[in-house]
Amino acid sequence: MKQAAYLMRAVRPTLLLGLIGRLLMTLAALGVAPVLASFLNDYSPLMWRLAATSALLGAAGWPLAKLHRGADIQWNEALSITGLAFVLAPLIMVWPLVGIDIAPIDAWFESVSAVTTTGLTTLRGMAQRPADFLFLRAWMQWYGGLGIAALTVALIMRHHAGARRLLETTGESLTEAGAREHARRVFVVYAALTLLAVAAAWTSGLAPFSALVHGLAAVATGGFAISDQNIALLPSAAVAVLSLICIAAAISLPLYARLPRRGPRALLGEPEVRALFIAILTTSTLLAAITVTHSDLAWWPAVADALVLGVSAQTDTGFSTTDVAALPPAAQLVLMVSMAIGGCTGSTAGGIKLIRLLILLRLIQVALQRTAASERAVLVVRVGGDRVEPDMIAGALQLLGLWALVLLLSWMVFLTQGQPPMASLFEVVSATSNAGLSAGLTGPDMAPWLKLVLTADMLFGRVEILALLVVLYPPTWIGRRRASP
Q1: DSSP E strands: which ranges in 288-406?
Q2: What pLDDT is attached to residue 154?
Q3: Which residues, 6 or more positions from 485, have their beta carbon under 8 angstroms from its beta carbon?
Q4: In the predicted model, what is the mean pLDDT of the chain?
């Protein structure tokens, strides 16, 4: 322990401030789109605050960005900037939202839900909200889905080693290209999926603005809609199209870049992609069976709603055509398991990711095989033919343990506040998985303390817990440092 403490290095303030400067400049650039949307909305009150926010971010970020000269960054520095990115991005949007009569706590909740692509909301009366506000929510989900850290790398970072560190915190693999080139490829894929999503939603019968908002939310697996009934009022064709988009976005984005060379095998050859389809089918089948058994609903409407919910839960999107609070407890339990597992690594979906479930199942299988094998037998853990290294196994178990701890502590807070156990657990799982489905507790009347708990869960889920823990870990900031760049 003493040797480990001696080798540890605290983050370098100058370098971190330089990275924050680049982040602020990126957020300033991203703020242009909602400003234009407000301008087209007849100079909405939101426009002036958004414009002022972008100007201030640019003015603050420009001098700070010059502090970082392209030196390599430590692992704790990469984790710190990732954690700070997902705290700062929603924080700077609180002031603009307060300007349109949204309470500060609800503005914070809405911003965190947007940037983390969760989709939970404490607001009501969406149909009466201004169009530029609805666009802002969807836009924040869109750039939150891509990953602020990855977007910063793609746009303005030039040093490959530092860029690699940032991208690794988002779960990306860098085996075939440099970090910046990899980020560019992911961005191109994400942009192409976005254009396809909006165009498909439009051709399915939605009005242009509705297609834009729902398309952005779908490709980000965010789930914000323009109605309190979510997507229940949309045409069936639009619901089907949005569900397909959610599935496409829950597949690892770097895999799409391989399609021109490898064809469909680039996707279907991956065990995690196959697991995604199996999980969606299993979840939807269980939901349909439970619904038909416990209600008078005909089988076809039950199957249709189950497919939408199954896709939404497994991809952690949050779209829904039915009232989740009215579902039987067994169906809610199925949804919780599905949301917690989530989609593929490197996608916009949340959850613990399917690859970690596959690793866990393979570990169990190897443990069973070991009981019948020779004492000298060497059993290697493999998933899809690839060897699973010990650090991957340790990382998966570490995340599962942290997840369980966050869920239990958050659930305990809800129970101490006298909230119903099943609904409380559902909200906590949904927030930590960045899923957005609600059992009815999240709303305007929720206690402020519980809103703060859910926002913390959303942040922990989006950065996979460790990054925020690093930000809160004292030795990250206090201790021996390398020479500043």
Answers
A1: 382-383, 386-387
A2: 44
A3: 12, 14, 15, 18, 68, 69, 70, 71
A4: 85
